[in-house]
């Protein structure tokens, strides 16, 4: 009897323990599943929240609700099924509310935002604290280096229409580094997904629970299978309840009829209990292993993520000694990946990422660690390399493999790689330093033309420092009006009369001396200064040209400046403030301005001409689609690229090609300008054509505004172009 009683107590205790263990496992899995759903919600926001255009169009001075509605609100609903999308401006007030397929008055979202105010406050505080002060006194936003997303976000639960819902708040931040004079709070993107039956079913399937329901009231004490949901203010807003498996109770019910025969079957019953307990433990261990794997690997490619890569990197460096060889850390970036997303869509972009991961995984050595860091960026850790040539061999195989096009979404895509590498111990034995230097090497590879690799060199660091100094100096030069303009005349076909002048920008820094436009213009593009620089040239040219009322003035406009939403308003304001006659102004654009949206560019061209300003197509003839642009867009002037003029004296068919271009411009009613004339023979050939204007060093070099009248007199007198009297960059 004692043996039977002991066995009964043991079985009851074991079954109860199994029930408790199973319940705890289910609760942990459900909690982890909910956390993963929240992380995925934050990840869905990342594509629109970490985006230069979103950062620009949500700022107070450039707020564009139509753009937000199309590219954020409706895109989030169509692609991720977000029930509600709210944009909170930098002042903390809602500026956009998209709820269940319709845009609403943002003020209606205030009650909901008040409930999740702690999340918004933490995101804004983290964004502000992410600014790093540079030696120059400017601030730069530092990207998060770890975690499932690149964004700064906070997640939790809230009530929507009386039902619990997932909520994620993400700071809207730029993709590229933004250099700011002071720290500024961000606009934030708020996304809500209601915990409806479909999402409950998905959560139940992910966590392995049965009959998962939402309860608004506290469950009765006898219902132990429940999980409380709290809002950001710590208030309970509901409960998740489910049907627990209770494996212990099932076991006890199965063996109860046999308890009467316990004397002869104790050994068998004990073995049965141990068997079931072991099975439950094994399932729990397998579930934990899957969760751990998901936490350390990228869901799209299956590669290691940033956290796993960092852990392996630290292990390699902490255990490194000279006998283990070199350790190479390699940053890999897919060239022009954003263009694929913009033209073929995010689904095609994801397929490109997966195919790139497959190719890199095959090429990586067995002892290497390959990780997807973020977006289209990968990292490769190569330990135990005998010398640098071993690492170069891996990089060469990568470039060779990616020379084969990918077939994605019915298109053959030629995807190239830009690769930067740093080597321990040559470059450093610090993980942070090695990663920074690999990133510098990657930037160098991109700057050299992409589709190549580069190893870190000390000169690269100096180049980066010089580039930062140039960017700072250029910003100061714009602010303090220390940039100069020179003007090159455009003459009649005989070269005797000046009809117009082209404004050319020059910069002489007090410390660095003359800086070529070929150097500082790309830096202005990269740092976001190009619009301010272009506006500076436009205003200065209109002010200078007021002294020559009989001459037109041509101003080059970059594609970034031309596509800027304030471009038309700034041109109009500049003309009004300077009192400049619009018909004297000519805007010169190259065909790269048409790279994205033809309809939008056509609208801008039309609005420019409605102001009375003329538009010229610069560098005509060097693009594969130049003729199609002439057919679709209303240009006033055609500027023949200087390469055709240079070929006149060496290429046998150059004269025929030049005549054809001039006849084409004349047939379309456009003025034709030949630039880059450097010899008398070139000028003589052009004077036998129907070309309207000539421009080049043979006629006159660019001169300061004070010397324009003198240049007119020299040309009228037939004097040759003098040597420049001042030192100017090309």
User: Per DSSP, what share of the residues sits in E-state strands of 2 or more residues?
Assistant: 15-25%
Mean pLDDT: 85
Q: What characteristic shape results from the CA principal axes?
A: elongated
Tally the helices: what do you get? 24
Low-confidence parts, pLDDT < 50 over ≥5 residues? 723-730
Give the end-to-end Cα distance, rounded to a whole number of Å.
Answer: 106 Å
The helix/strand class is: alpha+beta
* Main pleated-sheet profile: 9 strands, mixed
Helix content: 40-55%
- What is the C-alpha radius of gyration, as a whole number of Å? 34 Å
Tally the beta strands: 28
Explain what this protein looks like in three dimensions:
Helix 1 (2-49) packs across helix 6 (197-207) and helix 10 packs antiparallel against helix 11 (346-363). The strands form six sheets. Strands 20, 21, 22, 23, 24, 25, 26, 27 and 28 form a nine-stranded mixed β-sheet that branches. The model is unreliable at 723-730 (pLDDT under 50). The chain starts with a helix and ends in a 13-residue tail after the last helix. It has 730 residues and is of the alpha+beta class. The protein has 24 helices and 28 strands.
List keywords for this structure.
nine-stranded mixed beta sheet, six-stranded antiparallel beta sheet, disordered C terminus, 22% strand, elongated, 730 residues, alpha+beta, 28 strands, single chain
């Amino acid at each position: 009897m004692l043996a039977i009683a002991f066995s009964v107590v043991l079985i009851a205790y074991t079954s109860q323990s199994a029930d408790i263990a199973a319940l705890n496992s289910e609760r942990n899995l459900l909690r982890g599943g909910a956390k993963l759903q929240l992380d995925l919600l934050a990840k869905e926001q990342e594509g629109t929240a970490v985006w230069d255009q979103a950062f620009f169009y949500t700022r107070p001075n450039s707020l564009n609700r139509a753009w937000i509605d199309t590219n954020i609100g409706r895109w989030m609903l169509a692609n991720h099924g977000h029930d509600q999308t709210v944009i909170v401006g930098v002042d903390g007030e809602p500026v956009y509310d998209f709820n269940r397929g319709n845009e609403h008055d943002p003020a209606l979202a205030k009650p909901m935002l008040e409930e999740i105010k702690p999340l918004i406050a933490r995101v804004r505080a983290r964004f502000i604290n992410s600014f790093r002060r540079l030696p120059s006194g400017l601030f730069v936003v530092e990207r998060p280096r770890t975690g499932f997303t690149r964004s700064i976000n906070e997640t939790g639960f809230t009530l929507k229409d009386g039902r619990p819902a997932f909520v994620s708040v993400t700071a809207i931040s730029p993709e590229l580094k933004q250099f700011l004079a002071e720290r500024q709070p961000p606009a934030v993107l708020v996304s809500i997904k209601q915990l409806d039956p479909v999402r409950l079913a998905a959560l139940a399937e992910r966590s392995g629970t049965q009959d998962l329901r939402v309860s608004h009231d506290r469950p009765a004490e006898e219902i132990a299978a429940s999980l409380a949901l709290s809002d950001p203010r710590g208030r309970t807003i509901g409960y998740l309840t489910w049907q627990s498996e209770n494996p212990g109770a099932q076991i006890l019910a199965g063996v109860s009829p046999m308890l009467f025969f316990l004397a002869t079957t104790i050994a068998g019953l004990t073995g049965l209990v141990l068997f079931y307990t072991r099975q439950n433990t094994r399932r729990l261990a397998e579930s934990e292993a899957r969760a751990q794997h998901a936490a350390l690997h990228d869901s799209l490619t299956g590669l290691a993520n940033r956290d796993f890569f960092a852990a392996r990197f630290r292990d390699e460096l902490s255990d490194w000694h000279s006998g283990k060889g070199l350790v190479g850390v390699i940053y890999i970036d897919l060239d022009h990946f954003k263009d694929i997303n913009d033209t073929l869509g995010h689904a095609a972009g994801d397929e490109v990422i997966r195919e790139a991961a497959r190719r890199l995984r095959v090429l990586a050595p067995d002892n290497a660690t390959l990780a997807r860091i973020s977006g289209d960026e990968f990292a490769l850790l190569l330990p135990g390399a005998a010398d640098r040539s071993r690492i170069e061999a891996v990089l060469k195989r990568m470039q060779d493999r990616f020379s084969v096009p990918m077939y994605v979404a019915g298109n053959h895509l030629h995807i190239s790689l830009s690769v930067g590498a740093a080597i321990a111990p040559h470059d450093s034995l610090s993980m942070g330093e090695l990663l920074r230097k690999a990133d510098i090497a990657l930037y160098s590879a991109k700057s050299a033309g992409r589709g190549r690799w580069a190893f870190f060199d000390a000169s690269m660091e100096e180049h980066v420092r010089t580039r930062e100094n140039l960017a700072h100096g250029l910003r100061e030069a714009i602010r303090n009006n220390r940039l100069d303009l020179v003007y090159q005349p455009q003459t009649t076909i005989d070269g005797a009369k000046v009809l117009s002048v082209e404004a050319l920008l020059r910069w002489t820094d007090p410390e660095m001396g003359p800086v070529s436009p070929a150097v500082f213009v790309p830096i202005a593009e990269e740092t976001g200064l190009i619009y301010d620089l272009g506006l500076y040239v436009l205003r200065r040219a209109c002010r200078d040209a007021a002294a020559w009322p009989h001459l037109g003035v041509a101003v080059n406009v970059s594609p970034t400046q031309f596509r800027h939403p304030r471009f038309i308003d700034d041109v109009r304001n500049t003309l009004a403030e300077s009192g400049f006659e619009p018909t004297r102004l000519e805007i010169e654009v190259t065909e790269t301005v048409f790279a994205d949206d033809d309809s939008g560019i056509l609208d801008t061209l039309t609005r420019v001409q409605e102001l009375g300003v003329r538009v010229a197509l610069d560098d005509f003839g060097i693009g594969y689609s130049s003729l199609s642009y002439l057919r679709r867009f209303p240009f006033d002037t055609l500027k023949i690229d200087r390469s055709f003029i240079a070929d006149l004296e060496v290429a046998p068919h150059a004269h025929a090609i030049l005549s054809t271009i001039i006849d084409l411009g004349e047939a379309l009613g456009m003025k034709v300008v030949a630039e880059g004339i450097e010899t008398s023979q070139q000028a003589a050939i052009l004077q036998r054509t129907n070309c309207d204007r000539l421009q080049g060093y043979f006629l006159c070099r660019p001169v300061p505004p004070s010397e324009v009248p003198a240049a007119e007199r020299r040309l009228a007198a037939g004097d040759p172009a003098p040597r420049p009297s001042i030192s100017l960059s090309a």
